[in-house]
Each structure stands twice: as C-alpha cells, then as structure tokens.
C-alpha cells in the first residue's frame, strides 16, 4: 500500500499528539520529519521518533520526502505557512482555526486551490463517536427537520500564553468556540446567518488585560429557518464540560460530557458518578480518525471532509461575533463567494 509521507510543524502539545498518531496509528502514513523553532524541542522529538528534524519550516518544505505537512503552530502563523506549503506542492492539514482573519483564510484557500493540493482543517469533534452518531441519526431523519442548536462549552481554565492574546489566536470565538460554530453547521446542515453576542471578561484578569473575553453567550439564526444558542466559559471547576442538543420537528438528539460509569455512589443527596472525562481521554480517538481521513483524501484524491472553505466559514462567524459584541447589536455574517 502507498504511504503519505508527513512532516509536522509546531511541536507543542497538539503537534506531538499528531506526530505520535501518524507514527503509531496510521497504516497508510509515515512520519518523516518534524519542525519547531525551538531547536532543543525539534531535536528531542526528532530523535525520539527517529525522523529528520528542522528548525526552519521552509527547509522542511524543500525536503522531497515530505508529501504533506501538519501545521500545529500558533494561529497567527497559519496563513503564511499554508500558503508556503501549497506553493511547495505539499498537501496541508492545519489545526483549527484556519487563520485569525477572514482575509487570511481567503488567501489560504486560494493558495491551496491554485496549487491543486488538499487543505483540511482540524475540527476533530466531527470524528468523535457521539457527534458522528448524532449527525448520522439527524441525516436519517430520526428527529425530523433540525430547527434548534443548543451548546454549552466550558474549559477547565484559561488558555496558555499566546492564546490569551486575541490578535494571535482570534480570542474566545476562534481559539475556543470555533469548534462549536463548526458543529452547528455540521449537525444542522445550514449556514449561520446572524449573530448576537453578550460577553465579558469576568473570570481572569490576564484575559481582560489582553482584550479577550472569558464568558460569552451567542444567539444566532440559520439561513432558511432555525436558530441556536452557544454559551462558552473559560472556567469549569470540575473539568472539561461540553453538552450539545439539536431539536427537530420530531425529536431531539443529545450529546453530553461523558462520566465514568464504573463507580457511582448513591446517598440521600442523590447518585454521583466518578468525574467527567478530560479532553484527551474524550477526543484522542477522534484525532486518530481525523488524521486517517486526511491521509485517505490524499490517497483517494478526494476532497477532505473538512475543507478550507469550512474553516473560512467559521472565521466569518467569529468576526461577526466580535463585531456584534463591540457594537452591542445583531450582526449579519458576511460570507465569501
């Protein structure tokens, strides 16, 4: 069987996860290179996995043994790296969000289209068992026509370092809630038409000082019919908290945070389970299936399941959210052709 030879650029936590998956879990892919601007990190990961390592992304792109790249760097670097990779003829997987701004996203999409390379954006929830099953049941018509999307997303704490600066990460709407915008489009199957945001920086001084928000509620409408509500918080004291509902004309589908059912304690206060799953225990397998899907799209010469345009649509929603919050009014999502 042919194999896609992959280089991973950006060796923070998520970059190392993708490198490990490519190396150990993908039959039709081969990890051949890693890159990071921190030499000690690039060297240690490269030596650990016995692959070539680079401190310069351009140098990795010149490697003829690299067919595709995974871009897992801070968001503000994505556009330039996507464009360079496309111009070098490399297929591109980029972690979400695709870019910080709509104009950057358009440039990235155009570069991939011009070069004729695959461009996939990493919204791994689409590959989670529960969310993919929910999509299948909605598609089969089990809840009738979907009309209302409701989502709660709460992280255990604030993002690290650079991600607290909305100029680099896109802020809470892109760095965190872009997953939820993507899931609204994915499950309901319609584009978001208008958003109205209420939000504040009520939890963390460092987030407020950077100009970001840590507590938001977004009400929105879909094109045609239907509406939604997304609540996001950068603080959940008991752990990662994610819950989704889609109400249809004939029923409702629910996706919730999973609890460990192996231990429960019942008292007069009620029945309690051992804690909720944390992020990695919940979504690791989804990352594996996501990476498999990207490799498969290359080998079969098919469109990736999450395209650059999907990534662009999410950035368009996020920009409308920032505008709504700043102006205190509903804002129409302006979509590119």
Structural summary, described in words:
- The chain has 337 residues and is an alpha/beta fold.
- The chain folds into two domains: 4-123 and 285-303, 3-Layer(aba) Sandwich (Rossmann fold), CATH 3.40.50; 126-284 and 314-332, Dihydrodipicolinate Reductase, domain 2 (2-Layer Sandwich).
- It is 39% helix and 28% strand.
- It contains twelve helices and 15 strands.
- It has helices spanning 13-25, 39-49, 57-61, 78-87, 102-115, 129-139, 166-169, 171-176, 178-188, 205-210, 279-299, 308-327; strands spanning 4-9, 29-35, 52-54, 68-71, 91-95, 119-122, 146-154, 192-200, 215-222, 227-233, 241-248, 251-255, 259-267, 270-276, 331-332.
- The strands form three sheets. A seven-stranded mixed sheet has the order 12-11-7-10-9-8-15. The chain has a six-stranded parallel sheet with strand order 3-2-1-4-5-6, with helices on both faces. It has a two-stranded antiparallel ribbon with strand order 13-14.
- β4, α4 and β5 form a beta-alpha-beta unit.
- The longest helix has 21 residues, at 279-299.
- The protein is globular, with a radius of gyration of 20 Å.
- The model has no long low-confidence stretch (mean pLDDT 95).
Main β-sheet: number of strands, strand sense, barrel status? 7 strands, mixed
Strand content: 25-35%
Supply the number of helical segments: 12
The name of the CATH topology of the largest domain is Dihydrodipicolinate Reductase, domain 2
- What is the CATH level 1 assignment of the largest domain? Alpha Beta
Overall number of domains: 2
Rg, Å, rounded: 20 Å
Let me know the average pLDDT: 95
Report strand order across the widest sheet. Answer: 12-11-7-10-9-8-15
Please tell me the CATH architecture of the largest domain by its name: 2-Layer Sandwich
Helix percent band: 25-40%
Distance between the termini: 38 Å
Low-confidence residue ranges: none
Going by helix content, strand content and strand pairing, the class is alpha/beta
Count of strand segments: 15
Molecular shape? globular
Q: Would you list the SSEs in sequence order as H and E?
A: EHEHEHEHEHEHEHHHEHEEEEEEHHE
CATH superfamily of the largest domain: Dihydrodipicolinate Reductase, domain 2
InterPro entries: Gfo/Idh/MocA-like_OxRdtase_N, GFO_IDH_MocA-like_dom, Myo_inos_IolG, NAD(P)-bd_dom_sf
GO molecular function, one term: oxidoreductase activity
Protein name: Oxidoreductase domain protein
Pfam family, one: GFO_IDH_MocA_C3
